[in-house]
Amino acid sequence: MPGPLFHTQLGIRALRSLATTRLLGPVRPDRMVRMALAPLRIGLGPATIAALGAARHPDHTALIDGRGPLTYGELDRRAAAVAAGLRGTRPP
Question: Which domain holds residue 45?
């Protein structure tokens, strides 16, 4: 089980990633609430960045593959549906 130092280092890396993706900065209040709740909902990790992107810029392109672009909002909805399916529940 990782100790407190590991979690602190993980948090610092997450903040650096957020700073480089410009997810930190002025934001509408309703989006700020969703951004604040994202780590509580899914924990810290790569998925947190996608969830924060969905809260801040839901219509911005998150990734592009052979099928075309996918927005942060759609990525978040699809991830929630997959997670709900794995848990045997309905997506939020």
Answer: 4-87
